[in-house]
Design brief:
Length: 120
């Protein structure tokens, strides 16, 4: 992972005690419905232990016991996405014009001679 170089991502379905961690490739897309875990890079070539699985189980129990909010169904997500709250097309055009105007300015300072008075 580019964002967190000291960790790697593992699909929990691939975890088996006694086998090595199977890290996902950086370009591999995550699949909907799977659970992924970030493991420290120092454990990359080590085997999965019962302690690792126990830690994951306790964490999952603690998270599920908090009574987290239930996510809306996929159908309601589609309805929400179909009605944009803000049209960003106009903003993008204005920003690109603003960027062009900034880039077209000369970066060289305008040098003018300074007329000085004589000191008596």
């Amino acid at each position: 992972m580019v964002e967190m170089p000291s960790f790697f991502v593992v699909n929990t379905r691939s975890l088996q005690i006694g086998r090595r961690f199977c890290a996902l490739n950086a370009d591999e897309e995550l699949e909907y419905g799977n659970i992924y875990v970030m493991i420290p890079m120092k454990n990359l070539n080590s085997a999965v232990t019962a302690a690792d699985m126990g830690t994951l189980l306790l964490t999952a129990k603690r998270v599920s016991a908090k009574g987290n909010k239930i996510l809306p169904t996929a159908e309601s997500n589609l309805q929400m996405e179909s009605q944009p709250k803000l049209n960003l097309d106009d903003i993008d055009q204005e920003l690109s014009m603003h960027r062009l105007s900034l880039c077209s300015r000369s970066r060289k300072p305008l040098l003018e001679t300074i007329a000085e008075e004589t000191v008596c």
